């Protein structure tokens, strides 16, 4: 697989994403359902957004790993949140650490939604390619 990052500017580097990713010569593509702060027994977390983001990341890492992919294979990540302001102010450091830990270079969309399932306030939707 050849992954080419397209960045006409440099400002997005501080925000832990790229403008576009072209992928050629792939062996597979993994479309992940949105991963949220749901415990192994299926119960949703009612914790604060920071805690929920950590659990959502762990769940995304588990799904990607189970499929035989690596998080660095993520080319598109959509973050759904009930408060983009809270995500940026209180959770962005966790997001940055996640991206840096896996040496990810992915396109990102942050989307504020009215609500998520039950008590959830963050969900990660990813596409990975290898």
From TrEMBL:
Pfam families: Ribonuc_L-PSP
Domain of life according to the entry: Bacteria
InterPro entries: RutC-like_sf (IPR035959), YjgF/YER057c/UK114 (IPR006175)
Protein name: Enamine deaminase RidA, house cleaning of reactive enamine intermediates, YjgF/YER057c/UK114 family
Organism listed in the record: Dyadobacter koreensis
């Amino acid at each position: 697989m050849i992954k080419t990052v397209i960045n006409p500017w440099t400002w997005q580097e501080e925000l832990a994403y790229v403008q576009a990713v072209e992928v050629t010569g792939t062996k597979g593509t993994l479309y992940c359902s949105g991963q949220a702060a749901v415990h192994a027994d299926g119960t949703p977390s009612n914790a604060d957004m920071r805690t929920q983001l950590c659990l959502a990341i762990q769940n995304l890492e588990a799904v990607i790993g189970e499929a035989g992919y690596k998080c660095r294979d993520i080319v598109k990540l959509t973050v759904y949140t009930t408060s983009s302001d809270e995500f940026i102010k209180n959770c962005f450091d966790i997001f940055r650490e996640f991206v840096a830990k896996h040496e990810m270079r992915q396109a990102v969309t942050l989307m504020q939604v009215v609500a998520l399932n039950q008590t959830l306030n963050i969900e990660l939707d990813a596409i990975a390619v290898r």
